[in-house]
Write a structure and sequence with these properties.
By secondary structure, the chain is of the alpha/beta class. It is built from eleven helices and ten strands. The chain has helices at 28-45, 63-79, 93-110, 131-135, 139-157, 169-181, 213-222, 233-237, 241-255, 259-271, 299-308, and strands at residues 17-19, 24-26, 54-58, 82-89, 114-118, 162-164, 194-195, 203-205, 284-285, 292-293. The strands form three sheets. A six-stranded mixed β-sheet has the order 5-4-3-6-8-7, with helices on both faces. The protein has a two-stranded antiparallel ribbon with strand order 1-2. A hairpin with a 7-residue loop joins β7 (194-195) and β8. Bound molecules: adenosine monophosphate and zinc ion (2 copies). Adenosine monophosphate binds at residues 58-60, 62, 64-65, 86-88, 90, 99, 147, 165-167, 171.
Length: 310
């Protein structure tokens, strides 16, 4: 029997994606065009690149940040914004090696200059069996603090006015729900598409804020862009609340398409504006490293001290 192929709603090519929100069937070319346009619209809507002359692009080698740099590369060229790639080797065996390799590949394909930073040069080893006991934090929390610190430090050193990360819509919904569940509502103020926190805290932008991870995966596959497929083995292992919330978010979006997008759209417009933070958060300077800190010593230096036994 002859297989009937579905055609793209916008041209006559074979359709490879059904865009449910607009009831459109899209071919490869029109899907790629759609995703780029969505990301570019978000960048403009939230004025992410306003006053940015040089942008630091954090690439983990995963599908999201690879798709992000591929799109940003074009946008930055058009706007005459200088780009610098950053990949952080978190020291988790073969997994981190593959991440660095893939990030390096995409930087080289796009001809974007880059820096590689390693947790090991900061005295951080998140695979240590005694990590949780010493720091009172799970590895993912130490990793997150260290990554954010290094990104900010590199951005300052390199004179970048913004840092782009590849957080997608599912990540955002997961973090928002997790922090609602724990009552940590102030955090939602920082879970915006663009965050300008204060002096020496470089602006953070999340151009994939409204993009489902399924779409970044399709994008990198269609364009055959290098990327790692697996998740960090340390995160995978833990049977924690975060993983369960993520499964729930995924399932909700799959069973009720558009529901997570509707939630994420309300974070900047309806939810975050309702949250009052008691007394403005004041950043001082960490007396050890000189980077911004809420206390005398920043969380990163505290962790380093605990790990070095000082
Ligand atoms: P994750 O927290 O792993 O979901 O990553 C969210 C975003 O943070 C990624 O899309 C990247 O932009 C950035 N990121 C995470 N891990 C790294 C890394 N090892 N090196 C550079 N950027 C990273
Ligand atoms: Zn088409
Ligand atoms: Zn410090």
């Amino acid at each position: 029997m002859k297989k009937v192929r579905t055609r793209c709603t916008l041209c006559n090519e074979e359709a490879i994606y059904y865009l449910r929100s607009r009831k459109l069937r899209l071919c490869k070319r029109h899907f790629i065009e759609y995703l780029k346009t969505e990301v570019i619209n978000t960048i403009y809507k939230f004025e992410m690149l306003k006053n940015v002359k040089k942008l630091l692009i954090a690439v983990s080698g995963g599908k999201d940040s690879v798709a992000m740099i591929h799109i940003l590369h074009q946008v930055c060229k058009d706007l005459n914004i200088e780009m610098l790639g950053l990949v952080i080797d978190t020291g988790v065996g073969e997994y981190s090696k593959r991440q660095v390799e893939k990030a390096r590949e995409i930087f080289e394909i796009l001809n974007v200059p880059y820096r590689i930073e390693r947790f090991s040069s900061y005295g951080i080893d998140i695979t240590r069996p005694d990590l949780e006991k010493l720091t009172k934090r799970p590895p993912c929390s130490v990793c997150g603090i260290a990554k954010r610190y290094i990104m900010n430090k590199v951005a300052l050193e390199e004179n970048c006015q913004a840092i782009a990360t590849g957080h997608n819509m599912i990540d955002i919904a997961q973090y928002a729900l997790a922090n609602i569940l724990t009552g940590n509502l102030e955090y939602l103020k920082k879970l915006l598409p663009k965050v300008d926190e204060g002096p020496r805290m470089v602006r953070r932008i999340r151009p994939l804020y409204f993009i489902d991870e399924k779409e970044t995966k399709l994008y990198v596959d269609l364009l055959d862009l290098p990327h790692v497929e697996d998740r960090c083995p340390l995160a995978e292992k833990v049977e924690n609340v975060q993983n369960t919330i993520r499964m729930f978010v995924r399932e909700l979006e799959d069973r009720h398409p558009g529901s997570i997008r509707a939630f994420v759209e309300k974070i900047p417009t309806r939810i975050a504006p309702l949250i009052r933070v008691e007394g403005e958060e004041k950043y001082g300077i960490c007396k050890i490293c000189g980077m911004p800190s809420k206390g005398e010593i920043c969380s990163f230096c505290k962790i380093r001290m605990l790990l070095s036994g000082k």
